[in-house]
Design a protein that fits this description.
disordered C terminus; globular; Rossmann fold; 2 domains; 6-stranded parallel sheet; alpha/beta
Length: about 425
């Protein structure tokens, strides 16, 4: 079996690109590589030298992900180029393919690169995220069955990204592309043989409200980890990539609204903030008791230093790997309800769920003073991860859909192999 893996997420550095989107990407790659030969089509930023980067990526995939694959590269459509106001602001209201994030893979060059790859005769096409699905929706070529990892439901994310401080007209402008985005997303799900989401909650929403078939819950997951003891030091931890705006908002909530309450009651408490791109945090970083550690490769060392893990997420979609990861180590967790959405967790049993700044701070202080509660929550959380979110259980689930989809539907035809081969797709 041969599979073409199409994605817009290009891991420049496999050592540091280990946050959520790449962990889920690797989950599917690991499942596929055991059953099929893999080729990759990456849609890459303008600054990537595609004449040399493909071979380097092939070596990196083999070295870091243990997958031997052919790599094809195509530049994304350059959104920085001069466009008329109508094309930049008007068309996105009516056309999904003109919206930010989707126009980058919707140009003629991007569709042609996809079509050139498809002529290599694949048994399946695996599309990673909605942004990579645009060429498959725009082409008129016959295609093998498509599997789409939707991951987040993008139209739900759009609504949640509204800032509560915005004026009504700002909110109106933000949601104006919603109908076109919804239409494009539903079309993509209908086009795919199977569409994967992170939780049963997301699957129920798509099947119940939009009558969609072929939607499957493939949960985010983690490898098993050692149950760590309760740390005596009064230390809170937030961990995440700050290239993701919900993580930036979460840290600003922690620093600006939660941390003052904690420090007032317990001046010796400390807050560790870990993760790349911390320069995107628009808040004073010279706050007493707060330590920014940047990217940390040894996560177990970081978790050992921390008594509590915080996940005050107020926007976004899917499920939070940061919660599963902390739970795998048996760390007590305080999260917002949206932060824990889609996970089979119970307030007061596997973690504490709080939404207001005062309640969130009180929950943290309670855990800082109650080691028995910390131990109980951590043990229950780790048991849940082993039962429902262990990687060894999820990979076979993915493989079962690969196996049952490898045979084409009646009437499906593939385009033949074209002259030009692999090198034709490098530019």
């Amino acid at each position: 079996m041969r599979v073409l893996f199409v994605t817009t997420h290009f891991p420049r550095d496999f050592r540091t690109h280990v946050y959520g989107v790449f962990q889920r990407m690797r989950l599917f790659v690991d499942a596929i590589k055991e059953l099929a030969d893999l080729d990759f089509l990456f849609y890459v930023p303008e600054d990537i030298n595609i004449s040399s980067a493909a071979e380097g990526m092939e070596r990196s995939l083999l070295q870091h992900w243990d997958v031997e694959a052919r790599v094809f590269l195509c530049r994304r459509f350059d959104t920085a180029q001069k466009l008329s106001r109508w094309k930049r602001y008007g068309l996105p209201l009516f056309r999904f393919f003109k919206q930010q994030g989707y126009i980058t893979t919707s140009g003629p060059e991007q569709v042609q690169a996809f079509e050139a790859c498809v002529q290599q005769r694949y048994d399946l096409i695996f599309v990673h995220r909605l942004s990579a699905m645009c060429p498959a929706l725009l082409t008129r070529k016959s295609l093998p069955p498509i599997l789409l990892d939707l991951d987040d439901i993008e139209h739900v994310k759009l609504l949640r990204f509204m800032d509560r401080r915005w004026e009504w007209w700002e909110k109106g402008l933000h949601v104006s592309p919603f109908p076109a985005l919804l239409g494009g997303e539903l079309r993509a799900i209908r086009r795919a043989r199977w569409s994967f989401v992170c939780s049963e909650q997301d699957r129920d929403y798509l099947t119940r409200y939009w009558w969609l078939r072929g939607v499957v819950a493939v949960p985010n997951c983690v490898d098993g980890a050692t149950l760590l003891p309760v740390t005596p030091d009064p230390t809170l931890l937030f961990l995440g990539s700050f290239a993701y705006k919900p993580n930036v908002d979460a840290v600003e909530f922690l620093i600006g609204q939660v941390w003052p309450h904690v420090r007032q009651v317990m001046p010796e408490a400390r807050l560790i903030i870990g993760g790349p791109f911390s320069e995107r945090i628009d808040h004073d970083k010279d706050v007493p008791g707060i330590e920014f550690v940047g990217f940390v490769e040894d996560l177990e060392w970081l978790y050992r230093r921390s008594r509590i893990v915080c996940a005050p997420i107020f926007s976004g979609g899917g499920t939070r790997i940061k919660i599963l990861e902390a739970a795998a180590y048996g760390k007590p967790i305080v999260s917002t309800r949206l932060g824990a959405e889609g996970l089979e967790v119970r307030d007061g049993y596997e973690l504490l769920l709080r939404d207001s700044p005062q309640e969130f701070a009180d929950a943290c202080l309670r855990l800082l003073n109650d080691s028995e509660l910390c131990q109980r929550l951590g043990q229950n959380a780790q048991a849940l991860v082993r039962r429902c979110y262990d990687r060894s259980r999820v990979v076979p689930l993915i493989q079962s859909f690969l196996t049952c989809t490898r045979q084409p539907s009646k009437g499906t035809r593939w385009a033949g192999r074209v002259k030009g081969g692999r090198d034709a797709h490098r530019s």
